[in-house]
Amino acid sequence: MKKSSGFFNYMSANSQGSLFRNGKVLTRRDISGSDTGSVGIHLEKYEMNVMNARDSLSVEGIKLDKQGFELFPSKLGKKDIDFFNNQQVIKTYYSHCAELIKEVTGARSVLAFDHNIRSAIGKKSKRMISGGQQVQGPAHIVHGDYTLTSGPERLQQLSKPPGENDTLRSVLGASNSLLPIDTMNDALSSGRFAIINLWRNIVIDPVETNPLALCDASTVSPQDLVVFEIHYADRIGENYFAKHSSKHDWYFYDRMTRDEALLIKQWDSEGVLARTNGRSFDSEFSHKPCTFSFHSAFEDPNTREDAADRWSMEVRCIVIY
Questions:
Q1: Domain that holds residue 252
Q2: Exposed (0-12), middle (13-18) or buried (19+): which is 277, by Cβ within 10 Å?
């Protein structure tokens, strides 16, 4: 298998563990979704092997339910989508993402609820999405988007009217909700729900700069997790940051194109971590799917000096089984 190497930012080894919610590791975001300061983030840089997931030796073994990510062909066809127009993305592209995830997972219902664009140049120039938030930079820190607390909380929030920071507020208004309350209650009490991102390169040039790497979920342990709070204007969310572990196996899909969709599992209520409530895994849960995949942009030393900047979009979807 072909290997490269890259540099990753992990939380320092003495950071708090997965079950601590003491507010000492946090960031604040304004109404546009931009970071406005942080507390307690202490990073350490590590060089890690990164395997090309396109390699014939690995591609057949990588699955969304096992590793937490998987690449699929996904041509947009005649859909002429302006990814920098918030309303076009919501009204046209969201359904495309939901349909693909529903087909892949066999879920009963899939609904897109949020998205953002990432680009180093776009972040530096403070480019705005029409009708939306500011373009964000590639996230150069190992993280997962939801936790034991925030995964179920996000499901509950989607059964209520959207908050000030919610993308769907412009479509649903301040009094309607994306999910019926009964659907939410069923999924939370006795069903299965997941949050899956569809990540796409949105420009003609293939991705070379700041490529996205994904960690095999089966190589992550509960002791690797650090709770990270996100303080929005009207709510507090949580992500996981990661402490470094030599056991982490990293992959990336070389030169991703606009006609490919990378699915990244962000939370799964049937996942091992969710079902064990953060305890160490044992044989009783060996048949369970993974809960999420750590991911991060990374510095690839093989990137050409004149390579085009990466412009990517991730669309977050709630998946009800």
A1: 3-51+62-320
A2: exposed
- Residue 300 predicted with pLDDT over 60: yes
Residue whose tokens read 């127009």 = 85
At residue 128, what are phi and psi to the nearest 5 degrees?
Answer: -105, 145
Q: Is residue 132 part of a domain?
A: yes
Domain count, the chain: 1
Residue 219 placed within a domain? yes
Query: pLDDT (tens digit, 9 = 90+) per residue, 24-46?
Result: 676 776 766 666 666 778 899 99
Number of Cβ within 10 Å of residue 173's Cβ equals 10
- Of the candidates 272, 228, 292, the residue with the CA atom closest to the CA atom of residue 16: 228
Q: What is the pLDDT of residues 176-218, one digit of tens each?
A: 999 999 999 999 998 999 999 999 999 999 999 999 999 999 9
Closest CA to 202 of 54, 309, 318: 309
Prediction pTM value: 0.91
Q: Does residue 56 fall inside a structural domain?
A: no
Q: Cα dist. 142→9, 61, 228, 267 in Å?
A: 6, 23, 12, 16
Tokens in use for 7?
């540099």
Domain assignment of residue 97, yes or no: yes
